[in-house]
Design brief:
By secondary structure, the chain is α+β, with helices and mostly antiparallel strands. It is built from 12 helices and 14 strands. The N and C termini lie far apart (47 Å).
Length: 389
């Protein structure tokens, strides 16, 4: 089966369009936007090319039909995070054919091995973990923006090739109006009556510089030392705020302050796939106009879904119930804004404390993705992702 390296715009369009035929009988599939996929492979827009490289292929059958695709990447910033030098495989799509899947896996393995790698993780992204990361193995509902939907047989294709579970990723769901535990309200009352140095407020987009600075401050203290999480500069925080601006609802961005220092955040966005599923994924000029109209319709409708992007508490303020009080303050505002359900950005099984916190607010697991690892030398011992203590 011929394997074509994607080297020009025509093949790039075929790479993006290939999944549509595979998913024509999957009503819950929502196509990623083509520009979002192409940005990953654009050396002028993806900063990971400064310390890495990527390649992608399309697999065709004897009739010349596109039946699969895959990408492989080397990211020197993360290659040695594990004892075994590890590369990445991602954007995998394939017909239900183990031989075809093996062609794609073999090509990725050979390319990575030629660069000194001894294992590959997949399916992952050549970038941050918050997008295009993991294989869906449970919860075949509509995907959230930035995550892939996969048919159930993909799990068999990966595991038959010898991929093993490196970690599981859980997306959790909660009805916005579901009652919080009484202890949350007691904590919020205690902060209101006994701890006036703390206050809770949602963001003001009229001051994007403050929003970026507050986000950067909490993120740097709460997340920067976690494995797999890249440090964030203030300039990167400004860029994130700038990119959020077209879809921002300030009522979904909550902060806790102690003497005006931001010490916790809970940042969410409208769930964008509820808008993008009505828009052609090529996302050209006409589609952008359609997006604005669909966004306006989304803002008016109920039920409305939101997506929890990131949550964090500065270590000095952890264990004090800050997040509980923040949730109590946020809940009423979210309900008044018409949001009825929330799905949260995935949490790895290597982070039991965050999973416990998520359960404490009454959330349940709605989707499970898996990050697999394939050791090229199968005589070596396999180790799962270490638990965050």
């Amino acid at each position: 089966m011929p394997l074509l390296e994607v080297t020009d715009a025509r093949l790039a369009r075929r790479f993006c369009a290939l999944p549509a035929a595979l998913y024509q009988h999957h009503p819950n599939w929502i196509s990623p936007l083509y520009p979002d996929v192409e940005e990953v492979f654009d050396q002028t827009r993806n900063p990971n090319f400064a310390h890495g490289e990527a390649i992608r292929w399309i697999l065709t059958n004897a009739a010349g039909e596109d039946i699969g695709r895959v990408a492989a990447f080397v990211n020197e910033a993360t290659t040695h995070d594990s004892p075994v030098p590890t590369g990445g495989l991602g954007f995998f799509e394939c017909t239900d054919d183990q031989a075809a899947a093996n062609e794609l896996f073999d090509a990725s393995r050979a390319w990575l091995a030629a660069r000194g790698l001894e294992a590959m993780d997949g399916p992952i992204n050549f970038g941050e973990r918050d997008r295009f990361w993991g294989l869906l193995v449970n919860g075949y509902t509509e995907p959230n923006y930035g995550m892939f939907y996969h048919p159930p047989y993909y799990q068999r294709l990966f595991e038959a090739y010898g991929f093993q579970v490196f970690f599981r990723q859980y997306t959790c769901y909660r009805a916005v109006a579901a009652p919080l535990h009484p202890s949350f309200h007691r904590t919020a009352l205690r902060y209101a009556t006994e701890l006036p140095a703390y206050r809770f407020a949602y963001a003001t987009p009229r001051n994007p510089e403050k929003l970026a600075a507050d986000f950067h401050h909490v993120y740097s203290l709460a997340w920067a030392n976690h494995t797999g999480i890249n440090p964030m500069t203030l300039e990167k925080a400004r860029e994130i705020v700038r990119k959020m601006k077209p879809v921002l609802d300030e009522r979904l961005l909550w902060f806790a302050y102690h003497h005006d220092e931001p010490v916790a955040f809970f940042m969410s966005l409208p769930e964008l796939n509820q808008i993008f599923k009505h828009v052609n994924p090529r996302f050209g000029p006409l589609e952008k106009v359609r997006f604005l109209w669909e966004k306006r319709q989304f803002e008016r409708r109920q039920p409305k879904k939101m997506f929890g992007v990131i949550f964090g508490v500065v270590p000095e303020h952890q264990g004090k119930g800050v997040e509980s009080a923040m949730m109590v303050h946020a809940q009423g505002v979210l309900m008044a804004a018409g949001y009825t359900e929330i799905e949260m950005n995935w949490i790895g099984d290597f982070n039991p404390r965050m999973l416990a916190l998520t359960r404490s607010i009454g959330a349940r697991i709605s989707k499970t993705h898996v990050t697999y690892r394939k050791l090229f030398d199968e005589t070596k011992p396999f180790e799962r992702s270490p638990i965050i203590r």
